[in-house]
Amino acid sequence: MGLPGPPIDTPVALCYPRSNPKPQEGMMSKNGGMANGKMTKNFPVFDCDAHINDPLKIWEYVEPKYKDLVQQSYWRNEKQAILNGKKKVIGGARYEFSPGFNPICISGPGMTKPIKRKLIYSQLNEDQKDYLEHQGAYEPHARIKDLDLMGIDAVMIIPTLLVGHFPFIENADGAAALARAYNNWADDFCSANRERLHAAGWLPVQNAEYAADELRRIAKMGVRVALVRPIDAQGNYPNKIYPSWGGINWDKVFRAFEETNTVVGMHTFPTTGVGPTDKPMFTPGELIDLTAHGNGMAQGINSQTLSFIYEATTWLAQVLLSGFLERYPKLKMSILESNSTWLPGILERLDRYFHLYASQRTAPVKRLPSEAFYDQMFISFESDETPMFRQWDKFENVAVWASDAYHHDASDSWSAIREMSEVEVPEAVQAKMLGGNAYRMYRIEPKMFVHEQKPIERPAWFPKPAELEEFARVQKDPKLAREWQAKMMAGRAGH
């Protein structure tokens, strides 16, 4: 029998970290810091979740003796991507998104959402698509140039479709060989500028011994965070920390995270294209995929809107209600790619049910879920989360900023500073949330390389402000929007 909780109608005090009184000095203007008509910043920005587009060079790093095995695990070349030697999957190549641009590489410097919406409805030739496929997704020196333009001082590099496909590799040895190849490639990528480029590690979670060994290896290389997707791929949901559960025993993996002082990066992913199946669902997002068709919306809208958050909240509830963090008191975790505005409501609910269902816990737990979260966890946010900015006191010490570049919904630090300043988030708090918390989480010395926004030269065909205004006007009228889309489709068909 567990300890009884308070009556169901007893109010529970949500444990938020203490914040200093709202600073009045040093407040940025509602247009952000400005100097000579340019936006400026007075603190270093760390981008804790930005992506590469899984360059083909990664597979060149596979050790020769494992090449055949990796080809039967997850392999990419110029023509295709194959999972487990039999299933063709999306690998990230531009032709897979034809006739439009590559959404994995579109959001570089100055690529605002209005610009991207306009480009979706534009007829683009190959040269224009080349321009829009930002090479920082593949090459480190191009990445540094983009960081300068995006107001980012340092970045944590994360793969893209590897996050979605890797957990389903069936051969553990093939998974281990590919993880080593990725981590070695990523280390070389970041060697172009160790102060600004940092790589998140990837682990072969198909086998706990392999994962722990690889974690120890990459920690010696300087890796500060390693990624885990919180899903039940092949029955390996990352809460199986007791041997009696069978399958992989994650306990030794999380012990290795503690031992190496490496952050657990819980990185979610949209669930798409799973199709009918008689197998158990591996993620809450799969239900979205299976039920979203035929309701007047494309499946992607539902998946992109909900799948990330469902994976994150399912995992977080289990971690905070079970006493997981009591078992691993030195562990640090960050929830990535899942937004953050939902967090206060979830923590309030978990605190309430923590007492209500106290008798159902099998392990002793001393802290409220909200206390455990604020002690050991962080959560990433993106530039347009205004509701979160309005309650900044709940996030001041745990929020870490993510551009999500170069993915289609990404943005730069200048837009984050502008949005935060509009709702009067103090500059001292902006400095924490846009950089300070991430530097602290990763144990990296803060350094500032970018001080002001730089102009971006655009080709003649690039959408002009007047075009964007006209496009926005058209899109507000359903009839005009349909006519615009029909005209665009007719133009594409003619090519």
Structure characterization notes:
The chain is α/β, with parallel strands linked by helices and 495 residues long. The protein has a single domain, classed as Alpha-Beta Barrel (TIM Barrel). Helix content is 40%, strand content 11%. It has 19 helices and 14 strands. The protein has helices spanning 57-60, 67-71, 113-120, 126-132, 140-150, 161-165, 172-190, 208-220, 251-260, 284-291, 299-322, 324-327, 343-356, 369-376, 386-390, 413-422, 427-442, 465-475, 478-493; strands at residues 33-35, 38-40, 46-51, 74-76, 81-83, 87-89, 154-158, 197-199, 201-202, 225-228, 263-267, 333-336, 377-381, 399-401. The radius of gyration is 23 Å and the shape is globular. The model is unreliable at 1-14 and 18-31 (pLDDT under 50).
Approximate helicity band: 40-55%
**Overall mean confidence score, pLDDT:** 88
Strand content: 5-15%
For the record, the CATH class is Alpha Beta
Which structural category do the helix and sheet elements fall into? alpha/beta
Distance between the termini: 71 Å
Radius of gyration: 23 Å
Corresponding CATH superfamily: Metal-dependent hydrolases
Spatially, the strands of the biggest sheet line up as 9-10-11-12-13-14
The tally of strands reads: 14
- Give the number of domains: 1
Question: What gross morphology would you assign?
Answer: globular
Low-pLDDT ranges: 1-14, 18-31
Instruction: Kindly report the CATH topology.
Output: TIM Barrel
Number of helices: 19
CATH architectural group:
Alpha-Beta Barrel
- Quick one: biggest sheet? 6 strands, parallel
